[in-house]
């Protein structure tokens, strides 16, 4: 019974160990973000899993906007892609690209791309900039977040992580877990997914054991035939 329990818990422990190691390297927790919208398509699609790091983590330290000289290429375009969470908007964290930094009181539309603006500074609530921060946008949105009213000028302290790369479709599990937590609560979700993992691990262990036993019998039969 102890061996069976260890076999059931081993996959979960391995997943947890991988997550802890990735978090230690990335300097962010959780070290993964599940994408819930298509605002960063086509490079990052809904359901993708994005690996993130702390914004000051070597060798990826600092934040650089798309309009700045020497901007890194992330997801096929210039500029860092960040995860930020404005404290008062009631939305889930946003994964978007930095356009450029702004300072308190600046009319940032003077150096913005006109194609990503809907109006001028007099018609945009986030202009002039109410504080130091960053102008951001989703690659597929075609407008700055601050022009579209998606987010205010992003303060640096709202930024929780910087994106490194994405893995297609691996985020659906995380999205499913988050949806279950929102509907059922943390404890029922943990029990449900833990039970599912245990059952899956148990079936896998039984199947592997039968395959191994059948192979052993086959090998034994072959050796017996040769001996005769």
UniProtKB/TrEMBL annotation:
InterPro entries registered for this protein in UniProt: LexA/Signal_pep-like_sf, Peptidase_S26, Peptidase_S26B
Record key words, sorted: Membrane, Transmembrane, Transmembrane helix
A single MF term (Gene Ontology): serine-type endopeptidase activity
Keyword Transmembrane assigned: yes
Domain (Peptidase S26): residue spans on this chain: 14-98
Transmembrane segments: 184-208
Protein name: Peptidase S26 domain-containing protein
Native species: Halorubrum lacusprofundi (strain ATCC 49239 / DSM 5036 / JCM 8891 / ACAM 34)
